[in-house]
Design brief:
The complex is a heterodimer of chains A (425) and B (322). Chain A is an all-alpha fold. Chain A contains 19 helices and 2 strands. By secondary structure, chain B is mainly β. The chains are: A mainly alpha (425), B mainly beta (322). Bound molecules: iron/sulfur cluster. Iron/sulfur cluster binds next to loops of chain A.
């Protein structure tokens, strides 16, 4: 009986509460005397929610299809056509939002800030490509991410880059990821969105600066294939990690590699690892010594990173708007002759005491101290591991796609003369 | 070789993009240096039109805060402000001063030289010798009295708080409520977004009201019906610019209007039917941000402009008769 009463109580409350909530009006509506009629309040339409789930469904479908086309059909044409669809749907129709790359920040903020809950659809956008990559490699990059397709379309004259250059530039996404996480965790800013080069183009509302940014990126993309994906994309770092452990990854050849070398130069992203079969005892000894040295150096690099990060925490905290406001207030003398910066005027008229702001800023700077140290340590670790990877030459007999950096785009497959289940010589 | 050059070029370009991102992130967002909401009035304040008036030596009242000006039928200049009234002659000599507690927000002079002074929430009548005759308060609460105009038996009081013009007799008895919103009589009501709401009486005895939210001067008859109006919103000299203008006006003996604006501070003359005639004072004549340029018509075509920021009565003489 008691249980029934409780259920009934909540049902009544649930039934009554929406009109009650809607009835709250914080300020009386202004009475416009110019004949202007205040439009009815627009509540978020149910379709928007539905649309978000439609996006998740389309993501799942396109990822499944991309995986099928790469792993089963080995069809470059299929991948290309699907990538055009993704560009049209996720890019121009959905205007680049929700995007898995930016979702990193939502997820980070939800983890660190108690007051923010990441919408389920955004969480799916973040997780689904990672799960797919863990299972099948980066088929998301191949045909689903609109950014990739956009860059692929301009990659007319890709130039090969050496391993060292690839490794050096390849560290930038780690830096970017670290900063994006740091700023999202401290609720400072979503920098991935701020420097999203293509969203302004998808929405046809890019500022001149962002338009130039995207334009120059695309110009460099004529020669450096997919520059954003390879040397900036922070989500690419996570995909790279997942892909290294992928359960089934695409292969260049459908059967046994015949060392014909036809695929050697076809990957525009330098993602094909060449066979490594030569054994040179002297060189090997030298390499082993270098590896031992670097392994010993690794903790030092991490510690150095932690120390440097700690030293830089005030600079990093300067990106936070509250910190910047406090510094501006401290640096700006109160003068009647000079017009005040609008942020300072807004702050002064908010009624918040300056002391209160300073206390808040001290807490933010403390958070930044911890965060910057972790960020510094992470950068040191990435640097060390990159060096180790460059020196290490694992034994390989075949031409293989690099599991981390290969986008599973299937471009190299067409160059392989080997047919499935038999060789054609 | 060619490939190498291309590669170097592409990499430099890419690194420059990355460097820009980092620089932009750490050197602060550009909005902090520039006010994104800045209306950019500087350009709008500039005009090529040459004023048809020239400024002569301004008059300096004794009051330290002045708010309103009127000329009497005796040719004297009456200036009211915080705590009193100064009476000056055209040369700027102070003929008489008297004080009162409170803050005069507006002032006019009746044909018998009785001073009608708006004191924010009530009206006071004073003898020019400094003796108070009477005082009364509008029946509506939240009154913000911004302007008064008077003939011998009619006193019009503009109340920006209640967006209405009251008509009283000389004894302070309410005779009419003018301009109140009344759809049945097709009176749309006054739109007064800020405390600038001026009234004036033409030489023909007609009541004119500045409906500042609509950028219009409107003429009303005795029973409060809207007879006619003129004026349009525009940053060009022909119209009224900004949020709510004209902030003040006065009517010359030939029925033409002199208007002043805030935002883009400028004073202009319009014909009795509302056509732009001449520029009296250009925005550059005033300190930026000057508001409350009350106006009065002086002798010999002079236009007197009360400049509350400089605490002066600025005098403008016509270059030629128009
Ligand atoms: S699928 Fe082949 S061509 Fe495409 S990225 Fe991987 S290795 Fe390069």
């Amino acid at each position: 009986m008691r249980r029934k009463q409780v259920i009934l109580f909540f049902l009544i409350i649930g039934w009554l509460s929406p009109p009650a909530v809607m009835a709250i009006q914080r300020f009386p509506k202004p009475e416009f005397e110019s004949g202007y009629v205040v439009p009815d309040a627009q509540l978020p339409l149910p379709r928007a929610e539905l649309l978000a789930w439609l996006d998740v469904t389309v993501l799942l479908l396109t990822l499944s299809l991309a995986t099928y086309l790469v792993l089963k059909r080995r069809s470059r044409m299929g991948v290309f056509l699907l990538s055009l669809f993704s560009l049209a749907y996720f890019g121009f129709y959905r205007q680049g939002c929700v995007c898995s790359i930016g979702a990193i920040q939502n997820v980070t903020m939800a983890l660190f800030s108690g007051s923010y809950t990441v919408p389920l659809t955004v969480l799916f956008f973040f997780l689904i490509p990672l799960v797919f990559t863990l299972l099948f490699g980066r088929t998301f990059c191949a045909a689903v991410c609109p950014f990739g397709t956009f860059q692929d379309l301009v990659s007319f004259r890709p130039v090969r880059m050496g391993a060292w250059l690839n490794a050096f530039l390849g560290m930038i996404p780690y830096l970017y990821l670290g900063l994006a996480v740091l700023f999202a965790a401290t609720t400072t800013e979503f920098i991935i969105c701020r420097y999203d080069p293509f969203v302004g183009i998808f929405r046809l509302n890019a500022s001149f600066g962002m338009f130039l940014f995207a334009g120059l990126l695309l110009v460099s993309g004529v020669f450096i294939a997919r520059p954003y994906c390879r040397f900036l994309c922070p989500y690419g770092v996570l995909l790279n990690w997942m892909s290294q452990f992928s359960w089934k990854h695409m292969t260049i050849t459908p059967a046994e590699c015949i060392q014909c070398r036809l695929c050697e130069n076809v990957c525009p992203y330098d993602a094909i690892d060449f066979p490594q079969t030569k054994k040179n005892p002297a060189g090997q000894r030298k390499q082993v010594n270098q590896l031992i040295l670097l392994s010993l150096l690794l903790p030092l690099l991490v510690l150095g990173g932690v120390w440097t990060g700690g030293k830089m925490h005030l600079t990093l905290a300067g990106v936070n708007s509250r910190v910047r406001l406090a510094r501006m207030i401290q640096a700006t003398p109160v003068s009647k002759d000079q017009p005040e910066i609008p942020e300072i005027t807004a702050f002064r008229s908010s009624g918040v005491q300056q002391q209160q702001l300073m206390t808040e800023v001290a807490t933010i700077e403390d958070d930044f101290l911890t965060g910057s140290r972790i960020f510094g340590g992470f950068v040191g670790l990435v640097f060390g591991i990159t060096l180790i990877r460059l020196i290490r030459t694992p034994y390989r007999t075949d031409y293989l796609p690099n599991r981390g950096t290969c986008f599973s785009c299937a471009k190299c497959m067409d160059y392989c003369p080997v047919l499935k289940d038999k060789t054609n010589n | 070789m060619k490939k190498k050059i291309i590669l170097v070029f592409a990499i430099i370009l890419f690194l420059a993009i990355v460097a820009w991102m980092f620089r932009d992130l750490f050197t602060g967002s550009p909005e902090l240096q520039k006010n994104p909401y800045d209306y950019g009035m500087k350009e709008l304040r500039q005009t090529d039109t040459v004023p048809a008036y020239k400024e002569v030596t301004p008059l300096k009242p004794a009051l330290t805060t002045i708010t309103s000006i009127a000329t009497g039928y005796d040719g004297k200049i009456y200036v009211a402000g915080k705590g009193g009234v100064d009476i000056l002659d055209i040369s700027g000599r102070i003929l008489k001063s008297f004080t009162f507690p409170g803050y005069a927000t507006c002032l006019t002079v009746m044909p018998d030289n009785t001073l009608v002074i708006g004191m924010g929430d009530h009206v006071e009548l004073w003898d020019p010798s400094g003796v108070q005759i009477s005082a009364w308060q509008p029946e509506d609460t939240t009154s913000v009295i911004t302007s008064v105009a008077a003939s011998q038996h009619k006193i019009f009081v503009a109340d920006a708080g209640n967006k209405i013009v009251y008509q009283y007799n000389e004894l302070g008895k309410l005779q009419a409520r003018i301009g109140e919103k009344d759809p049945s009589r097709k009176i749309p009501g006054f739109v007064i977004p800020s405390p600038y709401f001026d009234v004036g009486i033409s030489p023909a005895g007609e009541l004119w009201v500045a409906n500042t939210g609509r950028y219009k001067l409107e003429k009303y008859d005795n029973d409060g019906s809207l007879l006619t109006s003129w004026g349009e919103a525009s940053v060009t000299l022909e119209g009224f610019a900004g949020c709510c203008n004209p902030s003040h006006f006065t009517i010359l003996s030939d029925g033409s209007f002199v208007t002043s604006e805030k935002g883009i501070e400028r004073v202009k003359v319009y014909s009795p039917d509302g056509n732009f005639i001449a520029l009296v004072a250009r925005p550059e004549s005033f300190d930026e941000g000057t508001r409350g340029l009350d106006l009065a018509a002086g002798s010999n075509g002079r236009i007197l402009i009360l400049d509350p920021l400089r605490n002066q009565v600025r005098v403008f003489l016509p270059l030629k008769k128009h």
